[in-house]
Amino acid sequence: MHRAGLTLLLAAASFACKKEAPVAPKIEEKKPAEAPQEIVYAASSALRVIDARQGKVIASIPIQHTIYSIQFSLDGSAAYLATGAGVFEVDANAHRLRGQLTDRPASWAAVDASGSKLEVLEHEVIVHKDGTRDIEPFHWVALDLTAGAKPIADEEIGQRVMFVVPPREDRHHLVVTADGEVRLGKPKTRLADGAAVALKGTAKDEKARVRHMVATRGNSAFVPVEGATSEVVEIDLVSGDSRAMSLERSVRIRGMAATPDGKSLLVNAVGELIVVDLETRAVRSALELPGAHVGLAISDDGKWAFLAQTVDGTGGAVTIVRLDPLAVHAKVHLDDISPWTVAVRPRAGMASL
Amino acid sequence: MAIKPLNRKAASLIAKPPDDARPFSFGDCCPGFLPGWEVDQFGNPDQCGGGWASDIYACQPGCYWTAQVPDGMAYPDWFSRCANVSQDWVNLCTVPD
Question: Which residues pair with residue B23 across a beta bridge?
Fold first, then answer.
């Protein structure tokens, strides 16, 4: 399609998508004494550092590459950005780019529990002279953060991988592919050797589709399934067994995170935030959000949730939600970016501010 | 002219009753615009809440809509010049560029 065609198409889409404005949820009129103390990173292909207490941007870091995920070191001193051009490291104290650690497109990067290893999901794209492209198999790569991010492991997984929960000594690994296949592999098996599993509770809905994201907490992995009644399937990474939790409505899922105490799972369902009680395995409450949101991050103390509102006026926003009682606390407007991923800096790193 | 199925897959498709709701979404995304198709695959009205612009980032990494949003795995840096979709969407290249 020519650029002019695309322009017309997008312009028409913009016009057509205008509809009656949803009733805005009531935002707390009187700000209580307690306010979030967090430093929040919000990004698209640029990174903005937000002081949630002040409700404003305190630093801007131009990356100029598509940022797919943001993860912090355990002490909060560094942030790792998985981007379309590789992994970048940000000095979270000085709010500046520290360097580039890898140079292949990375869709996920996470620091392991020891804090000494950065695990990256990446793949190579071969661009031929005629413009055609070959997508190479995805790899799981581990970098030693104590030795200048030196690669210490590289394992091929397979084609079109969207998410990996890496192997550990005593638990299964988990791989989610772009076509919604969920593969589990027993402990100590290679990531390419996992077997596709049928998630319990979803077989009755032929159109149900796994949304390619995973949230983890302890030995549980949570996989969202969008369908006539959307669900979240909890997979026990020790036993490999799975159980579904109904969200009681048909929603698209754009973010998930378990609270630090492991009692609740928050689900960003685009226009609402759904709270699932992980003990009763049922929806406990839901909050209408002001507009469509993507991504989700929770503060260390489990009191606040942060969601990216991709479009807010001519820019975007980060919506701050108080979790008890469940209410929209504030919105931080971003003039110049439309964020689609958010992360909260660990409080361990706050002392250096 | 009637279309005749030439293999078993085509026969199974033609035997299936047509959906009465025509989805504007592709898989689990809603980056497209097709007049008269403004429901998702489950018959719900626009689940994206704010149209394609709000969901275009979430859709690109794992899927695509032909000629509108390229496959994020083949074009992992397609958004590199689009930090603000409301302002910068004109920078999004067509494929092939």
Answer: B39
CA distances from B34 to A10, A14, B26 (A): 11, 12, 11
Work out the burial of residue A134: count CB atoms within 10 Å of its CB; fewer than 13 is exposed, 13-18 middle, 19 or more buried.
exposed
| A163-183 pLDDT per residue, tens | 999 988 889 999 999 888 999
**Active-site residue, selected from the candidate residues B28, B46, B55, B71:** B55
Nearest CA in chain B to A63: B80
Average pLDDT over residues A128-157: 95
Q: Which residues of A207-246 are buried (b: 16+ CB within 10 A; e: fewer)?
A: ebbbbbbbbbbeebbbbbbbbebbbbbbbebeebebebbe
How many angstroms away from the CA of A253 is the closest CA of chain B?
9
pLDDT tens per residue across span A269-295: 999 999 999 999 999 999 999 989 999
Instruction: Provide the pLDDT for residue A101.
Output: 98
A166 preceded by a cis bond (ω within 30 of 0): no
B46 is catalytic: no
Strands A220-226 and A209-210 turn out to be antiparallel
Cβ <8 Å between A291 and B50: yes
Are the beta carbons of A311 and B54 separated by less than 8 Å? Answer: yes
Q: What is the ipTM of this complex?
A: 0.81
Amino acid A200: pLDDT: 61
Name A84's bridge partners: none
Task: Sort out which chain A residues have CB atoms less than 8 A from B83's CB and list them.
Answer: 44-46, 62, 336-338
Question: Strand, helix or coil at A45?
Answer: coil
pTM of the model: 0.84
